[in-house]
Design brief:
Length: about 120
């Protein structure tokens, strides 16, 4: 006999100096060739297309107030693997923002150096 499919939503949130992982169990309502229709304990039913299962979705569209988050729906047996993928995604985002901020800092430093060498001249 087949065991019932158990779908989990794993969410990761990085908020300043804390990493929070949240696991929520979703009940399978319908399975088709293309998607699962699932429902959490609260809220409406949701369709998860099978090709989107085990795929990390970035929830943070811009970095504000020290908050980054992402999530993924997965089968219960892939929970540990998806946890590592979510943490990896957050690490990549932190590295990207850090690199962009370093470039911005370099632009400010160049401007200050140029202004110090050429006082009184308009700077671009």
């Amino acid at each position: 006999m087949n065991s019932p499919i158990r779908i989990i939503k794993l969410s990761a949130e990085l908020n300043r100096d804390k990493l929070h992982l949240k696991i929520s169990h979703w009940k399978l309502l319908v399975e088709t060739n293309r998607y699962y229709e699932i429902k959490s304990e609260i809220g409406p039913a949701k369709r998860i297309y099978k090709e989107k299962l085990n795929t990390v979705a970035e929830e943070t569209k811009c970095y504000t107030a020290g908050l980054l988050s992402c999530s993924a729906f997965c089968h219960e047996e892939r929970l540990h693997v998806m946890e590592q993928e979510l943490i990896h995604m957050l690490q990549l985002k932190v590295n990207t923002y850090r690199n962009e901020l370093q470039l911005n800092q370099q632009a400010i430093d160049r401007h200050r150096l140029s202004a110090a060498q050429n006082p009184g001249e308009p700077q671009e």
